[in-house]
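Possible race condition, two jobs.
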Amino acid sequence: MFVTHHGENKIVRKYISIVLLLVSECFHSSYSRAQAIDTVATYSLSAYIDAYGASYTDQVGYGNFQKFPTVSPRNNEVGLNTFQLAARYEGDRIRAIATLHVGDIAQSSWSRTYPLIQEAHIGFRILKNLWIDAGFFRTHFGTEFLLPVENITSSVAIATYYEPYYESGVRLNFDPTKRLEINIFLLNGYGIYEENNKRKSFGAGVTYSVSDYIGIGYTNYIGNDAPDSIAVSQLRIAQNIFINYQRNKWKVQVGADLYLQQHADINNSNSSATAYSALATISYHITPAFSVYARGEIFNDQNGYLSGIITDVKGKQTGYKLWGATAGLEYKPTDNSYIRLEGRKLQMDNDQEIFRYNEENRNYRYEVMVNAGISFSLLKGIQTRN
């Protein structure tokens, strides 16, 4: 999608106007309500920027996104993954967050209806350690996060690409101890903000800190996102488990997904079908500023209900099956910034030649990307009731 400079200026002006209005309203209403409700409240405005340069051995044409587009999705270009502003309010009984973003991640991976909104929700405390939040959320499901600043790697695994990035609904949040967190969701659907049928979906997430070094978690999703016009049930049950370890110079992340969907078998539409994926990422700090990292991943959706159905070189109908290997070097000039050089190979099944390079169809792709990012606070404050 090409935009003129005049169009870009209009988008930027519109974005800034929305942010200023949002921040003004948020702080004004938060201040007035805090006087009556919250004894002590904190508020903040923060920003995050990630820029990149990337090259892929897959010819998709100038101006187009690569296959599996999320982070650094344009070939042989210098681009902006994201520029985002986040306003937060934390009180005794009320909390809220609103994050707006622009860039290639917003264009390639976000809602077409609400492309500027990364998340926006408000919550109320019901009891001690029990909150209810409603609005637009970033996804609760999966092992990796979405943004480079949140992950060991800059790119995300293919499994993460097919997981939902965002969701809308109501969340019940309960933290019975400092080590245990439980979230239960009532959602519109899998990776959507706006509802597409009369049914609701459900999700849950549980994380537990085993020690100061090890954390484990489980997330799931249960829902049928087929249009109401489809009579047969396409109920999807997605489950994810992950383990995080961090101590001294080492950081390790391991996770796996398992999907089951009704009436999704390619060869027998009356049967259910499964899909699975797994990843393992490791990082080692050579010095406080330099670290090296690597990730291995597999993804198998042979029935294509996540990745879509293709015809391979032998004429067989199938979904994607692949593995990938990633390696990179990170330099942190400051605690809130990073520069990364990263390479990855994606290897499809032998007969799935979905990439094209030097006028040849191929079943593998090489990627190289350089990312530079920084996050910082624009405003912080504490207000108390008189």
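Job #2 (started ~2 s after job #1):
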Amino acid sequence: MKDNLARKIVGRSLLHLFGSVLLSIITIYIIMNIGMWLADNVSLARDIVRLVLSVFSRSFVFFGTGILLFFFYFILFQWSLFQYLSELNMTVKRIADGTFDLDYKMEVRKRSIFGPMAANVNSLTDRLHHALEEERKAEQTKNELITNVSHDLRTPLTSVLGYLGLIEQDRYRDEVELRHYVQIAYDKSKRLNVLINDLFEYTRMRYDSAELKVKNFNLIEMLGQLLVQFHLPLQEAGMVSKLDAKETSVMVKGDAAKLVRVFENLIANAMNYGKEGKRLLVTVHMEEKDAVVEVINYGEPIPTSDLPYIFDRFYRVDKSRTQWSGGSGLGLAIAKSIIQKHGGTISVTSDIEQTAFRVTLPIIK
């Protein structure tokens, strides 16, 4: 109840009321004393002053004058109190009708009881401005998402339809060419399937519609099993892997299947873009209440200009949207959403020596 504006207004009005009464009495006292002094010391004005004092001394004139003075002072005090409120109201009106921008700041007078109101209105307009900016960005993101999805779906779909059209029209020389066309259509269809599944998963994670199947598990054990599963693909890519962890058990709480997807994506990225370095290092260590996992490759670095956008959906460092040798462009965006839903963080650093994706997850104590 410390910030009860009604109580403050009533209190201030009562203070003005007593102040007006006091000032009225003081004013009448001063007027009478000045009049008596003039009557005693100024011969020319003596008769006039005495006449005025005799009239003024009558009770109805005395009290009438006091009441008039009271209203004068009270209105003056109240005017000074509510004039600032009127200014605030006019400012809000101008913000509402668009005369002022939403980032316009009201003057906050700390001595006024309406100062907190001005501060609250500034805070409200800030939040409204932020909400409108977020809405605008969301609309832009939605439009970009539709454009990107349309583009990425159209490219392989055009190939699928083209090759299936050739097959349907018997426009192939022999069975070898037929099987070649079928293989291309099949590969493009798999790419379509990957994109659609990733898009569905990204949407679910982005808008919190995916429920996590939470359980306790050993992060070290999970990462070790992942590297075993990737042993053959890493060997084919000419890379060797190593898990570096001082602890044998780091217990975390989360959806193991979704976290597996995160680290699968990071390992796959390291294979695709870091094979020139020939090595993949996965490290695990503890930092206060978090487990920190780093997936490090020693291949070509990510350009500095690309680092801030690496976790954006559909962002590819090579900027090529016609190359289908890579993934859907959603893997890192999905990974970020999954990690954030687990209360963790994901980031990346890259230089000429190494590229390291860093994941933090809360541990169980």
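The longest helix spans residues 115-168.
Logs attached separately.
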